């Protein structure tokens, strides 16, 4: 499949060029900034490795987002070159491994019965959770980067050209399709849809958040996270590139060159909003909202009134992942493969580890036992604890 691989490499390059030109604040008229070097810090915390392993060749040179699926006792992980693993989350012991015969394009989604992934040839595939064997597959109109999502009866996949498709989890029968619109230029990002019992919420490169009826795919409401402005396609980028965060009966969403907003999940009515620009979902912890801004600033906002508590700007332009709360710390990865620990109280950088020299693109995940799961671009996967330095 050389043609498809070439297209991926070119599209990945396009995103890289867009990032270089566009991630210099909320206007592409700003001067392009180089990523700052890894800052020297006075470490008071350290990353203590619990276990580690390699998952094939990871992203294998492609601009993908192959985040592992954490289901509690087990972690399911895949590599672009077709390696599949089920691993005990507490020990790292391999429960089963399987060799998928095609290149994998998305991270793994799942429900109580199956795992789901998408292939280089734009197929949606359901796999057994017991051994990784194929159960069913369905063709998709075009490539999918985000992990398919399921509520147990419905599986939803979102293509890079704005289509959202619903399938029966039991046998893969196509149930509905919603055709969204995307601008000429967009980020090569992977915002997975939210799939509830009655509603599917999808984010689009047009800056819109749209709720669809889970039974039919019909639109219920839409919310504008960002409005294109400027004369060039680059200036008009308003992607919603991170999966919305569910908070009781509302969803929190952020867009690139848009805003951070809380929206009623039933009606789409805005509860509050403030100007923001980010490529990743916000994180909440201890009554505060944490955001990795597009320019590399980490920002803490007070949840009650969204006032800024602190800003950490020593990681500027390092293409940070979504922050993850770990007890008294935040943890982010960056494009050079470093993990950074930040004091949640004051935003100070307190810990640092070079994890994967090919970079970290997918956010860290918190496991059921409280430990931190990290997946690097090269396929390095490890579980850490963040502890005071000895």
From TrEMBL:
Transmembrane segments: none annotated. SMART domains: PQQ. Keywords: Cell outer membrane, Lipoprotein, Membrane, Palmitate, Signal. SUPFAM superfamilies: Quinoprotein alcohol dehydrogenase-like. One of its GO terms (biological process) is Gram-negative-bacterium-type cell outer membrane assembly. Residues 81-312 form the Pyrrolo-quinoline quinone repeat domain. It comes from the Bacteria. It is found in: Cell outer membrane. One of its GO terms (cellular component) is cell outer membrane. The keyword Electron transport does not apply. Residues 1-21 form the signal peptide. Part of the outer membrane protein assembly complex, which is involved in assembly and insertion of beta-barrel proteins into the outer membrane. This is Outer membrane protein assembly factor BamB. It comes from Marinobacter maroccanus.
